[in-house]
Design a protein that fits this description.
Largest sheet: 3 strands, parallel
Shape: elongated
Number of strands: 6
Number of helices: 6
Distance between the termini: 37 Å
Helix content: 25-40%
Order of helices and strands: HEHEEHEHEHEH
Strand order of the largest sheet: 1-2-3
Radius of gyration: 20 Å
Length: 206
């Protein structure tokens, strides 16, 4: 876009700590940014900063995860709550009644993650799954944490499910007939590594 006179500056947060996001917002405005596209945790300090920038004439749009209480110009992204409902509907068709579920989420400080989980939870509830059978674990977008949370789940006899599509190859163990593992096509190594565990010797990932 430089041929049009537009220069794009990119700053990436290494953590989910609000202070880091605020620091990067300051860097961008000090560098002369006249507009911002932001994906950040829904923290009051960040919401306030986005609103203050709007007062200064610097428009902000949010993407992937919204800051609904800020004065951002608009949100760009899917209907995240509806996406969670779709995932919950698909999952409810693929697992037997009475199964326990483990829903892993990145970070509940992000509006997008909260909305997706809310949609998943609401649809599962409507399908007749008691909420006490749904266990929620934050993994903070960390592969090793995800692997640990998922692999520890069998000790609690939980049927494993992510907000994705459908169950895969079952793995016997822990007093339940199978683990049912759902994941995205580009599932991270920790989920793929589950194929090396258990007496069956393999599992699949969609």
């Amino acid at each position: 876009m430089e041929s049009t006179g537009i220069h794009i500056l990119i700053r990436r947060c290494e953590t989910d700590i609000p202070a880091e996001a605020l620091k990067l917002l300051d860097e961008l405005t000090e560098a002369g940014a006249s507009g911002l596209a932001v994906c950040a945790a829904n923290d009051p300090s960040i919401t306030a900063r986005i609103s203050a920038l709007a007062d200064e004439g610097i428009p902000c749009v949010t993407f992937n995860s919204d800051l609904p209480d800020s004065r951002r110009l608009c949100f760009v992204g899917q209907d995240i709550y509806k996406a969670g409902r779709v995932a919950g509907g698909l999952m409810s068709r693929c697992i037997p009644a009475g199964s326990q579920l483990l829903a892993t989420v990145g970070n509940l400080k992000f509006d997008g993650h909260r909305q997706r989980l809310a949609g998943f939870r609401d649809r599962i509830r409507e399908a007749g799954f008691p909420m006490e059978d749904l266990v929620v674990a934050e993994t903070f977008n960390d592969y090793e944490t995800t692997f640990r949370v998922v692999t520890e789940a069998p000790s609690r006899c939980i049927t494993i499910a992510s907000a994705a599509s459908r169950p895969l190859t079952g793995i016997p163990g822990c007093g339940v007939s199978t683990w049912r593992i759902s994941a995205f096509p580009d599932a991270p190594p920790p989920l793929n590594r589950l194929g090396k565990r258990g007496p069956s010797g393999s599992s699949a990932t969609i």
